[in-house]
Fold this protein.
Amino acid sequence: MKTRTFSDLSLSKPLLQNLEALGYDTMTPIQAESLPVMLEGRDLIAQAKTGSGKTAAFGLGMLIRLNTEKRQLQELVLCPTRELAEQIAGELRRLARTMPNVKIVTLYGGVPLGPQRASLQSGAHIAVGTPGRIEDHLGKGTLSLQQIHTLVLDEADRMLDMGFGDDIARIAAQTPPSRRTLLFSATFPETITAISRTLMKSPVIVTVDTEHEKDDITHRFYRTGSDRDTLLLQLLSHYRPESAVIFCNTKTDCDALADMLGNAGFSALALHADYDQRERAERLVQFANGSCTLLVATDVAARGLDIKSLQAVVNYELPHDPEVYIHRAGRTGRAGERGTVLSIVTPAEKRRAANIMEAMGSAVGTFEADTLQKETVTPVHPQYSTLAILGGKKNKLRPGDLLGALTGGAGIDNASVGKIEVMEKICYVAIRTERADQALRALQNVTIKGKKFRIRLLH
């Protein structure tokens, strides 16, 4: 029988104590299968879906080999998007919080090179980044991979889909031949096999069935002519999800659809690679904290999206690959909650829908659009609005400071304050929409830790 508890592994006492404090006891299947391989120092190919616990798996596999006494870069994680890089770095910091002086840096585009260069120069142990920005630093001589002993490729299938295969090969070539390579992928196309042959040494292959229980997710395919917009408004009015990701296949479609939904009275934001880092971060924060109900995204932008409770996934356009559909669907119905996947099928997409149903291996509902009740379009409005405070960890701000300012000087009751996120240079606070203007005016006239900060209400 495979190991199922972290205490059965040869982990250090501080790591085990931290895992217990974090509530990690029983390992997920991917953790149970892959961690013993990583503890042996072997190369690994692991197929794991979103929400399977893979980040904690390779994170622990990295931390057990980290030498914190050496102030040099020892481990590198490559991933496809900035959002995923931030998510991975955040999880690594949580896992490493009982280890002394572990420094983790993120390296991705859309932000200046200078601060990243300074972080590298001051000495970092682990870097998490996107291939393009890693190559930028290598080209400018601000990054050395000569001491790397662990290279992680997370969401390798998506990086290859995005055309990063050659970049990954060039980056790997600058690491020592003795390094260990850990490759994690949601799908297993031929390109994964090809890249593993060039980068890895006799890798152990782990495939874990991490599909959701059939009862967790309800799939509905609605057939229509060519009027996707009208059907989408009917679906949203009928099912009334308080949080949903709507997938489009192109960035242009995302923008057009978000505008259409906004004009119809819905709270919708687009998310794709053309937005700069600040805009992307703010849109993700608003969606995660309940200030926005609908996120209209491409598959690439949604990689790394970590929303704990997502009621629905909507396929405004069906993907060409059934694996992509399954990956989209896996974002709802997580952690024992129920989820719904709603898909619009035009005549041109009938073959795609049939391929998806066949790949899923189970009967899913297919309905005509006119089976929906002809309801008046009634948007679900978000319960919260978001305040952005232009100060953060660099100003020694903590969530308690912001909560105190709101409930003290601003006179806002605790129940009206939602999720608080403190980042390096900015804080985001979710406030009940009916109290948002009051909170904004009040905070503009109070000091937090003896200082006044610029504050704005996000729209």
About this structure: The first strand starts at residue 44 and ends at 47. The chain is about 35% helix and 20% strand. The domain at 214-371 is CATH 3.40.50.300 (Rossmann fold).
